[in-house]
């Protein structure tokens, strides 16, 4: 409808005034220029001259008349910008009655003088021209709407021109709004309101979407963004981060695009009433569960909650804040963006890998039809492909299940693949620091983990082991290995090298092993060696026995020698 009316206006020779109105940034000028080019390509423009003038900042009707004269070009060459050549052509046309001999002096007059006579001459030379007056609402304060409409009417009636007025009528206020409404019907022949959908505006702003721009188009449509300038600003920011964002898991790249669209729209449209306060709500209150009955969401906040639910935004996290800082600054902190994106990327890939493992195990748990080969190969394949998400529990369950199914080769293959390919430091293979170590029972898994961790870590001294144990209040598989090889004499010497709180904490920690239900026999060995060493120390002197009782170790009392009983003599 809008396109048809504008094309008809351009193609007709009849003098008339067209008004094209719509909100800021929705593409009114883009539409006008596109249809003008389309009509020119088909040589279907009714008049031979064209002038485009932005009224932004123009302060007088004389300045406007001069601007029309200076910006007039032939419609056959619309791609030609107004220049000295076109300006001279316009002068020549205006001065044809005076003859070419006077041209040189008159040109100087046009450049050096702004007299009323020259302006009048230039104005009367304008005829049969399509004139586009854009940005009416942004005109200079001294230029009145009534004067613009009066000039448009005069150009139509007396100079046989066609005038297109482009504006956002909602931005006219006070007397200017009243004047526009009062003379609208008298001056304007055709009035059109341009109100494209968010999808239309997205297609205009990003007409050949590719890569992450495809997701951006969907996001701005979901937000119902109709300001093309805002969309293009967001697009420029996306192009800054796309080389980084595109290499991460889809969950991460989608979050970057989604947050960029939401916060970009709120930031660049912050003066518009519908979004006022929504930024603060999304950053500070979104996702809160309010238990205090006196602190409920307002009706407006409830609407925002619903809006953000539909958009798919839960709550602001660290990555969102870095993106917002980049929007405000116009550039992004690449180091922070990379660090946070990589963390989320790892988490997303682990979640996906865990889901893949669960689907593989469903072959075992949720079907009675599949044979052993299918189940075992499915689990083994998923275990290898998603190794980054597998932990010691997954390993133990896989190995034990394969053994129970009488598939020892596959059990050994899974264990070996884990030990050789699992990425991570010593803690990755350290069963002693694993939260669910008591659930790990397969002897091959336990032995394999021990061998793996010992192969990647240099053995510390016994003193270093005890120092680390006291500092962290935890055991390491390497530390257990070192202590399990100590003799009783070495434990005695070790205890005698310690003093103060370190001695007390060491004895308490080593004796605490007695109460731990651990399947690894090395713990029992350390516990027994500790007990024997302390007994030996206690037996060295009464003083040491008393000292060890203060540490909670009470050696058994020495056996009392029995006094021989005298036999009564008989007789």
Write the layout of secondary structure elements.
Layout: H1 2-11, E1 17-21, H2 28-41, E2 49-54, H3 61-70, E3 72-74, H4 84-94, H5 103-112, H6 116-124, E4 129-134, H7 145-159, E5 162-167, H8 174-187, E6 190-193, H9 198-205, H10 213-223, H11 228-245, H12 250-268, H13 278-284, H14 299-311, H15 318-329, H16 334-365, H17 372-385, H18 392-404, H19 408-421, H20 426-429, H21 443-456, H22 462-472, H23 477-484, H24 488-497, H25 500-512, H26 521-540, H27 542-550
Parallel strand pairs: 1-5, 1-6, 2-4, 4-5
Antiparallel strand pairs: 2-3
Helix pairs in contact: 1-2, 3-6, 7-8, 9-10, 9-11, 10-12, 11-12, 12-15, 15-16, 16-17, 17-18, 17-19, 18-19, 19-21, 22-23, 22-25, 23-26, 24-26, 25-26, 26-27
Global Rg: 43 Å
What is the helix content? Answer: 55-70%
**Average pLDDT score:** 83
Q: What quaternary form is this?
A: single chain
DSSP strand content: 5-15%
Structural notes for this entry:
The structure is a single chain. The chain has 571 residues and is mostly helical. It folds into four domains: 194 residues, Rossmann fold, CATH 3.40.50; 133 residues, no CATH class; 111 residues; 89 residues, no CATH class. It is built from 27 helices and six strands. Strands 3-2-4-5-1-6 form a six-stranded mixed sheet, sandwiched between helices. Strand 4, helix 7 and strand 5 form a beta-alpha-beta unit. Helix 7 runs parallel beside helix 8. The chain starts with a helix and ends in a 21-residue tail after the last helix. The C terminus is likely disordered.
């Amino acid at each position: 409808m809008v396109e048809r009316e504008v094309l008809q206006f351009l193609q007709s020779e009849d003098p008339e005034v067209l008004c094209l109105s719509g909100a800021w940034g929705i593409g009114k000028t883009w539409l006008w220029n596109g249809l003008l080019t389309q009509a020119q390509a088909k040589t279907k423009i009714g008049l031979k001259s064209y002038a485009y003038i932005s009224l932004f900042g123009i302060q007088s009707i004389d300045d406007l008349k001069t601007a029309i004269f200076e910006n007039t070009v032939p419609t056959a060459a619309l791609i030609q910008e107004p220049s000295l050549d076109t300006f001279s052509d316009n002068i020549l046309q205006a001065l044809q009655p005076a003859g070419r001999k006077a041209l040189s002096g008159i040109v100087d007059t046009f450049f050096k003088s702004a007299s009323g006579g020259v302006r009048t001459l230039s104005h009367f030379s304008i005829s049969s021209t399509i004139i586009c007056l854009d940005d009416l609402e942004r005109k200079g304060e001294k230029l009145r709407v009534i004067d613009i409409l009066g000039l448009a009417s005069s150009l139509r009636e007396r100079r046989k021109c066609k005038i297109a007025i482009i504006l956002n009528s909602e931005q006219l206020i006070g007397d200017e709004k009243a004047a526009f409404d009062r003379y609208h019907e008298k001056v304007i022949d055709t009035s059109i309101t341009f109100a494209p959908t968010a999808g239309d505006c997205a297609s205009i702003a990003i007409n050949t979407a590719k890569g992450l721009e495809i997701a951006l188009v969907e996001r701005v449509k979901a937000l119902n963004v109709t300001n093309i300038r805002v969309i293009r600003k967001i697009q420029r920011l996306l192009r800054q981060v796309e080389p980084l964002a595109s290499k991460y898991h889809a969950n991460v790249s989608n979050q970057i695009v989604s947050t960029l669209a939401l916060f970009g729209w709120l930031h660049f449209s912050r003066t518009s009433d519908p979004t006022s306060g929504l930024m603060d709500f999304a950053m500070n209150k979104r996702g809160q569960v309010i238990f205090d009955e006196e602190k409920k969401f307002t009706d407006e906040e409830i609407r925002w909650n619903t809006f953000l639910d539909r958009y798919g935004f839960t709550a602001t996290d660290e990555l969102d804040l870095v993106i917002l800082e980049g929007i405000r600054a116009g550039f992004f902190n690449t180091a922070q963006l990379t660090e946070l994106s990589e963390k989320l990327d790892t988490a997303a890939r682990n979640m996906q890998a865990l889901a893949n493992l669960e689907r593989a195990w469903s072959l075992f748990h949720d079907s009675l039809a599949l044979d052993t080969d299918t189940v075992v190969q499915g689990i083994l394949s998923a275990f290898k492909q998603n190794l980054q998400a597998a932990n010691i529990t997954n390993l133990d369950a896989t190995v034990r299940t394969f053994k129970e199914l009488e598939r020892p080769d596959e059990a050994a293959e899974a264990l070996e693949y884990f030990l050789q390919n699992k990425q991570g430091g010593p803690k990755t293979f350290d069963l002693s620091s694993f939260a669910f170590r008591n659930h790990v029972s397969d002897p091959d898994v336990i032995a394999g983990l021990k061998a793996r961790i010992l192969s990647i870590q240099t053995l510390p001294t016994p003193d270093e082991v005890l120092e680390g144990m006291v500092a962290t209040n935890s055991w390491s598989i390497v530390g257990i290995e070192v202590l399990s090889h100590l003799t009783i004499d070495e434990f005695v010497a070790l205890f005698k090298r310690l003093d103060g709180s370190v001695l007390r904490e060491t004895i308490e920690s080593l004796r605490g092993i007695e109460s731990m239900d651990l399947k690894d026999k090395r713990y029992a060995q350390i516990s027994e060696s500790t007990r024997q060493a302390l007994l030996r120390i206690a037996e060295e002197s009464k003083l040491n026995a008393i000292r060890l009782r203060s540490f909670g170790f009470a050696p058994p009392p020495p056996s009392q020698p029995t006094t021989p009983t005298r036999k009564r003599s008989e007789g």
